[in-house]
């Protein structure tokens, strides 16, 4: 019988958040609240529903577990502490970021700034997903948060391991799951598309774009760029398993789950030597470029296309050793056990 209970609060229904929910459900009794809305007046209804959900479940709960420190984390943090429960917030990246020029980061909006301040201070524990995220948290929020913070690296989804010996085309893939034009700059997709223009013989995929992001990228793309909307994980795995290179040129990247998934699927990684990308590809794993320079990026991709499966295998092995789900499961459960 699972004698310990966790309230799990999630604003987004993302695969990496669902992995944590699955991990915790194996050992604890988990009651999950999922927001239906992230913007607009209907958020108020969700916040009220969250409040009622917490009042119903908080009495016999041991831990309140929240992904991201934003407006949705305030009420759980207040109620959790009022009832003397452990409150854990996973710092996923956008909550620790503050890119004023791009208007990116929870802190760039007044409500976000207040929510970030309250939730991080009320939480008993903070779990940044990378060293880069931890450093941003201290720099952009408060150095006082260091004592309650512990880095627990995110993980990839094992679904992305390819089955059998698949044929690969000279295709390049990047993932940018967003409808926002600003996010395409954050993810470096504008640079990726300019890079594609110098390699017209190759096909460059951008996965996950819609709305104004799609319209903008379509207006600047050449004929060798294919823009795809959000697709299923199985469809993304199929694309990775039939491609040779996965790229991540983010100007700010907390972790980079899609980069990991591409590597595990057998793609050679090419990325910008900064942030979470730099941590993932440390020790010369893949092709890292020092700046978003077209010639440097072109050279990295051309070198990557020459890599064999034998060359990529050590990269996959390193990634699997550091970022597989069992590593996160062990660290996460061990940490929570130490609090109870």
Concise synopsis of the structure shown:
With 340 residues, the chain is an alpha/beta fold.
Describe the model.
With 340 residues, the protein is of the alpha/beta class. The chain has two domains: 5-155 and 324-339, Glycogen Phosphorylase B (Rossmann fold, 3-Layer(aba) Sandwich); 158-323, Glycogen Phosphorylase B (Rossmann fold). It has helices at 15-27, 42-57, 71-82, 110-122, 131-140, 181-186, 189-197, 211-220, 233-241, 257-264, 275-280, 294-305, 309-323, 325-339, and strands at residues 5-10, 29-34, 63-67, 86-91, 125-128, 171-178, 203-209, 225-228, 245-248, 268-272, 287-289. It is globular and about 60 Å long.
Itemize the secondary structure elements and their pairings.
Layout: E1 5-10, H1 15-27, E2 29-34, H2 42-57, E3 63-67, H3 71-82, E4 86-91, H4 110-122, E5 125-128, H5 131-140, E6 171-178, H6 181-186, H7 189-197, E7 203-209, H8 211-220, E8 225-228, H9 233-241, E9 245-248, H10 257-264, E10 268-272, H11 275-280, E11 287-289, H12 294-305, H13 309-323, H14 325-339
Parallel strand pairs: 1-2, 1-3, 3-4, 4-5, 6-7, 6-9, 7-8, 9-10, 10-11
């Amino acid at each position: 019988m699972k004698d310990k209970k966790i309230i799990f609060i999630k604003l987004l229904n993302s695969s990496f958040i669902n992995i944590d929910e699955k991990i915790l459900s194996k050992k604890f009794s988990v009651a999950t609240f999922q927001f239906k809305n992230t913007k607009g007046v209907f958020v108020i209804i969700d916040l009220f529903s969250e409040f009622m959900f917490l009042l119903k479940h908080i009495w016999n709960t041991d831990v309140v577990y929240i992904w991201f420190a934003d407006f949705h984390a305030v009420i759980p943090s207040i109620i959790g502490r009022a009832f003397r429960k452990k409150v854990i917030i996973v710092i996923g990246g956008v909550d620790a970021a503050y890119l004023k020029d791009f208007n990116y980061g929870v802190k760039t909006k007044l409500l976000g700034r207040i929510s970030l301040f309250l939730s991080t201070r009320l939480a008993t524990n903070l779990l940044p997903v990378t060293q880069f995220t931890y450093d941003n948290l201290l720099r952009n929020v408060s150095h006082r948060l260091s004592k309650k913070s512990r880095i627990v690296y995110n993980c990839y989804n094992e679904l992305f391991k390819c089955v059998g010996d698949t044929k690969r085309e000279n295709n390049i893939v990047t993932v940018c799951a967003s409808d926002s034009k600003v996010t395409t700059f954050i993810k470096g997709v504008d640079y990726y598309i300019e890079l594609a223009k110098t390699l017209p013989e190759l096909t460059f995929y951008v996965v996950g774009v819609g709305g104004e992001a799609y319209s903008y990228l379509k207006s600047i793309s050449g004929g060798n760029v294919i823009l795809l909307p959000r697709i299923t994980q199985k469809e993304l795995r199929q694309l990775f398993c039939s491609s040779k290179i996965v790229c991540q040129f983010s100007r700010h990247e907390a972790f980079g789950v899609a980069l990991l998934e591409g590597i595990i699927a057998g793609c050679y990684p090419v990325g910008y030597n900064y942030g979470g990308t730099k941590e993932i590809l440390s020790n010369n794993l893949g092709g890292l470029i020092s700046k978003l320079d077209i010639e440097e990026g072109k050279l990295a991709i051309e070198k990557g296309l020459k890599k064999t499966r034998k060359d990529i295998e050590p990269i996959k092995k390193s990634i699997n050793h550091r970022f597989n789900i069992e590593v996160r499961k062990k660290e996460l459960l061990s940490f929570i056990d130490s609090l109870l």
